[in-house]
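Re: that backbone. C-alpha cells:
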C-alpha cells in the first residue's frame, strides 16, 4: 500500500534526523497482515520482486539519510514463481547488501503463512554494514535458538527481528500472556550469545489480531535498554558494540562449546 511506504519514509527520516544510524521497520510493514486467511488469492497482488518498487524507495532513503536500513520484510516474488517473506538490507550508501528470507514459517490460526511463503533458502546471513555486523531473522525465527547461535558464530554484533505477532482479539490465551515469553526468548538469545538483540514488532488491531507492539532492544547481558509501549512509535537505543566482544571473551560461551556433543542438532529427527 503506497500510504504505508510513504508513512514509513517520513518516520525513517525523522529517526535519522534524531541521530539514528541503523533503522529497522516491522515485518510486512507495507501492507495489511494478509496471512489471517488460508486462501487470500488477492494477497498475491501485493508481492513484488527484489529489487523492485519498494526496495528502490528504501535504497534512496538509506542513501539520502546515510543510514543502514533494514526494510522490515517484503512479500517477495521471484522469477521462478516462488514467494518469500524477505528482509532487504541497505548500507548507508543505499546499496542493497542482500536479502534474508524467513526460514521458519508458521501455520497456525490467523497466522497461515505457509499458504503464502516458501521456506527461506538463503540461510543465516551476516551483513557487514558501515555501522555494525548485523544478522536479520524474522518473527517466528525468534523461537529457534539455533539460528541466533549460528548468527553469533558468524560474527553478528546485532540480531534484528522484524516481527508481526499479537494476541487474538477479545480472547485470553489458555497458556497465558504470549508477550512475556516472546520478550524473554529473545533476551535469552542476547544472553547466550552476548550480543545485541532488537525486536521490532507490528502494533494495532487488524482483523482478528491485536498486535501488541512492545519493540525492544536487549544488550549482551539481556538487559532491556529500550522498550516501546503498545502504540506506534519510533524507538531509539544506544548500542556499545565494543561490549559484544568484551562480553563474549569474559563469559566464553562461544569458546566453550562442544560441537561433537550436539550431533543430534544436525539430524532430521
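Recovered sequence:
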Amino acid at each position: 500500500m503506497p500510504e504505508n511506504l510513504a508513512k514509513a519514509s517520513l518516520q525513517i527520516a525523522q529517526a535519522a534526523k534524531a541521530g539514528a544510524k541503523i533503522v529497522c521497520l516491522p515485518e510486512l510493514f507495507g501492507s495489511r497482515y494478509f496471512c489471517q486467511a488460508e486462501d487470500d488469492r488477492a494477497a498475491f497482488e501485493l508481492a513484488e520482486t527484489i529489487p523492485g518498487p519498494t526496495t528502490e524507495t528504501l535504497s534512496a532513503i538509506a542513501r539520502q539519510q546515510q543510514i543502514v536500513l533494514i526494510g522490515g520484510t517484503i512479500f517477495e516474488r521471484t522469477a521462478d514463481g516462488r514467494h518469500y517473506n524477505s528482509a532487504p538490507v541497505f548500507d548507508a550508501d543505499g546499496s542493497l547488501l542482500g536479502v534474508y528470507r524467513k526460514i521458519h514459517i508458521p501455520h497456525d490460526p490467523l497466522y497461515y503463512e505457509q499458504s503464502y511463503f516458501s521456506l527461506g533458502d538463503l540461510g543465516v546471513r551476516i551483513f557487514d554494514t558501515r555501522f555494525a555486523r548485523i544478522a536479520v531473522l524474522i518473527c517466528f525465527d525468534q523461537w529457534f535458538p539455533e539460528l541466533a547461535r549460528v548468527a553469533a558464530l558468524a560474527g553478528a554484533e546485532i540480531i534484528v527481528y522484524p516481527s508481526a505477532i499479537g494476541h487474538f482479539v477479545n480472547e485470553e490465551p489458555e497458556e497465558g500472556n504470549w508477550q512475556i515469553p516472546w520478550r524473554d526468548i529473545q533476551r535469552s538469545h542476547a544472553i547466550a550469545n552476548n550480543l545485541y538483540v532488537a525486536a521490532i514488532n507490528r502494533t494495532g488491531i487488524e482483523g482478528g489480531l491485536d498486535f501488541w507492539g512492545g519493540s525492544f532492544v536487549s544488550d549482551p547481558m539481556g538487559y532491556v535498554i529500550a522498550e516501546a509501549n503498545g502504540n506506534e512509535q519510533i524507538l531509539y537505543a544506544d548500542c556499545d558494540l565494543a561490549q559484544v566482544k568484551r562480553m563474549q571473551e569474559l563469559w566464553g560461551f562461544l569458546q566453550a562449546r562442544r560441537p561433537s556433543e550436539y550431533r543430534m542438532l544436525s539430524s532430521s529427527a
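DSSP finds five helices and 14 strands in the chain. The first strand starts at residue 22 and ends at 24.
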